[in-house]
């Protein structure tokens, strides 16, 4: 089955994602997740799991930082509690976790494990991983090749922010600020401006965001990804606002449902989303979009002028004066909207709309606009209010109702998915004076499902001869009793999938020597690799620093058209605002760029 997987910053965001159509959500525990600012207490996770399972929605908990020896006991305690909460899976990076008591919780290999190499993925499959989250850099062709050789579930990112480094292989934040990306504390140095210079100091690019990628969008690739073997489609964004979570989840829900209908496939959860919202990916946070390397190397992947959200392009300036502008095409703005544009220096500038007079859009302050400037709306007030309204998304499970006359009275059953409840009651056999009204009253009363998680999908009514008169109070009591029974039955019937890591396996790891890029930071991880035939293991960068800070598929020589330039004076360097200098090396065989510290 196909799964749409959405981010949950917290309990509220998780419920919102479910209401907008997520088949699964991923959420951080109180510690040990790769977004330290998206941590949650375990009681909230328990509540989210309980709510999600009503809709057969899965909850995966993220424990994907590298760990230190002193943290192992606390990690085990966390896993113990999550198991008894009925968690659907753990997303991990540190293989030391595999040496703990995992009960039968399914294990998912985080993208932080750098799931690029088919040999590594096959190894994880053999020792019992349920799923691996593939590196964002993989193309459709590479995904197909992996699927041909494995049966393990494959998860792919389809939307959101892109790390410029291969995930789990970036040490710039640790190097610059002693805050590790592999410990959930990344300061995002890739979103800062740099200058590119050659070996003679010539400036090739000045104060540009040379490592800041656009955001990923896969709206046109879903069907091909399904055909390639992806079963879980992941939206990035555990630090994003709730409007982003709702907008992107509902957008991809609709997109995926169209393809599932076409292919006669099923989604993995229950319930339908009722909403009049028209989702628009450009109306919530985005740095403009790229499909990255999904169809091979692409040129236009950098948000080179700004790492901030652009929003939606509204038009070009055809007239301006003071603090107002007029666009070349009429657009609806309202006071409170946010707009932005690039000034003549190439800097992104923003302002707020304060009033509208005809075609004139007035801003809260004078702006340095020019004719032809592109104006973006990076905050759409009306859309934000609409999409975040608590009633804008209603997720309901369809109930099939059957009412039959019996010798003693009536028998009523409610069925939703695989859950079934029923009740038989005695009533006096009085015939209805108005046959049509009798049927309408029955249907009307069973439709009144109000604030429950259900809606009436189908009703069948069967009387012996003539319709019976059934008091409204009787119908109402039946409805309330059966809804409560059905709710309890659905929760009782939820069956978590089981996983099993084979701890007795001596399956050889595909590498014999591990550098600091393999992120071994505790004794259990070291023991795991030794058990699987690794002979040399370096400590993680966070323990013993190295000089390579990043490996990325993004190549500045390629981006700037410098490949093969005979006049290029290498080596090349990046220089940040603090005048710190970084050496660039280019692995042209793999078409990769590496960034090194210069001590």
Low-confidence stretches: none
CATH architecture of the domain at 3-162 and 217-279: Alpha-Beta Barrel
* C-alpha-based Rg, rounded: 28 Å
**Total number of strands:** 29
The major beta sheet can be summarized as:
8 strands, parallel, barrel
Task: Provide the fold topology.
Blueprint: E1 3-8, H1 11-19, E2 24-28, H2 42-53, E3 58-63, H3 72-84, E4 89-92, E5 107-109, H4 118-127, E6 131-133, H5 140-149, E7 153-160, H6 172-177, E8 194-197, E9 203-208, E10 215-217, H7 222-228, E11 232-235, H8 242-263, E12 272-274, E13 289-290, E14 312-321, E15 324-327, E16 338-342, E17 348-357, E18 360-363, E19 374-379, H9 381-388, E20 394-405, E21 409-416, E22 419-426, H10 435-447, E23 454-462, H11 472-493, E24 513-514, H12 523-531, E25 536-537, E26 548-552, H13 556-559, E27 572-576, E28 581-587, E29 592-597
Parallel strand pairs: 1-2, 1-11, 2-3, 3-4, 4-5, 5-6, 6-7, 7-11, 10-13, 20-23, 24-25
Antiparallel strand pairs: 7-10, 8-9, 8-27, 12-20, 14-15, 14-19, 15-18, 16-17, 16-19, 17-18, 20-21, 21-22, 26-29, 27-28, 28-29
């Amino acid at each position: 089955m196909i799964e749409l997987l959405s981010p949950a910053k917290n309990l509220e965001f998780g419920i919102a994602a479910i209401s907008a159509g997520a088949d699964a959500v991923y959420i951080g525990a109180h510690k040990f997740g790769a977004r330290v600012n998206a941590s949650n207490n375990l009681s909230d996770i328990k509540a989210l799991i309980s709510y999600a399972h009503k809709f057969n929605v899965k909850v995966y908990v993220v424990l994907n930082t590298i760990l230190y020896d002193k943290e192992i006991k606390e990690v085990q305690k966390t896993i113990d509690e999550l198991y008894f909460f009925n968690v659907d899976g753990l997303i991990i990076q540190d293989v030391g976790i595999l040496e703990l008591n995992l009960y039968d919780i399914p294990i998912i290999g985080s993208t932080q494990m750098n799931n690029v190499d088919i040999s590594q993925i096959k190894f994880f499959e053999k020792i019992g991983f349920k799923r691996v989250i593939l590196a964002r850099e993989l193309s459709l062709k590479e995904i197909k090749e992996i699927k041909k050789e494995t049966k393990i579930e494959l998860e792919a990112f389809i939307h959101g922010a892109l790390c410029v480094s291969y995930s789990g292989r970036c040490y710039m934040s640790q190097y610059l600020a002693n805050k590790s990306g592999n410990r959930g504390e990344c300061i995002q140095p890739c979103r800062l401006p740099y200058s590119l210079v050659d070996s003679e100091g010539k400036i090739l690019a000045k104060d540009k965001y040379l490592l800041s990628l656009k955001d990923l969008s896969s709206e046109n690739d879903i069907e091909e990804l399904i055909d390639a073997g992806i079963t879980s489609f992941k939206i990035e964004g555990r630090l994003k606002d709730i409007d982003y979570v709702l907008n992107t989840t509902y957008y991809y829900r609709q997109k995926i449902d169209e393809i599932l209908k076409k292919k006669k496939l099923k989604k993995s959860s229950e319930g339908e989303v009722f909403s009049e919202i028209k989702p628009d990916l450009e109306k919530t946070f985005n740095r403009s979009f790229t499909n990255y390397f999904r169809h091979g190397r692409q040129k236009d992947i950098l948000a080179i002028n700004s790492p901030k959200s652009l929003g939606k392009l509204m038009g070009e300036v055809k007239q301006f004066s003071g603090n107002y502008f007029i666009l070349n095409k009429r657009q609806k703005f309202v006071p409170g909207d946010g707009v932005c544009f690039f000034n003549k220096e190439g800097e992104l500038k923003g302002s707020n709309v304060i009033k509208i007079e005809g075609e004139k859009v007035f801003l809260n302050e004078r702006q340095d606009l020019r004719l032809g400037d592109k104006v973006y709306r990076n905050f759409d007030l009306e859309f934000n209010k609409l999409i975040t309204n608590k009633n804008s998304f209603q997720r309901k499970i369809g109930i099939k109702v059957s009412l039959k006359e019996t010798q003693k009275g009536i028998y009523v059953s409610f069925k939703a998915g695989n859950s079934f409840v029923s009740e038989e009651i005695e009533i006096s056999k009085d015939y209805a004076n108005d046959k049509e009204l009798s049927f309408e009253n029955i249907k009307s009363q069973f439709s009144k499902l109000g604030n429950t998680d259900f809606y009436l999908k189908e009703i069948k009514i069967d009387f012996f001869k003539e319709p019976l008169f059934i008091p409204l109070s009787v119908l109402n009591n039946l409805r309330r009793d059966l809804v409560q029974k059905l709710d309890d039955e659905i929760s009782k019937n939820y069956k978590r999938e089981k996983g099993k890591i084979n701890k007795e396996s001596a399956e050889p790891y595909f590498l014999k020597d591990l550098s600091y890029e393999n992120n071994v930071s505790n004794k259990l991880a070291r023991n795991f690799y030794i058990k699987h035939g690794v002979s040399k293991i370096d400590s993680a960068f966070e323990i013993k620093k190295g000089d390579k800070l990043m490996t990325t598929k993004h190549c500045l020589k390629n981006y700037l058209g410098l490949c093969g330039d005979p006049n290029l004076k290498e080596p090349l360097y990046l220089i940040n605002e603090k005048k710190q200098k970084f050496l660039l090396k280019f692995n042209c065989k793999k078409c990769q760029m590496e960034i090194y510290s210069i001590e």
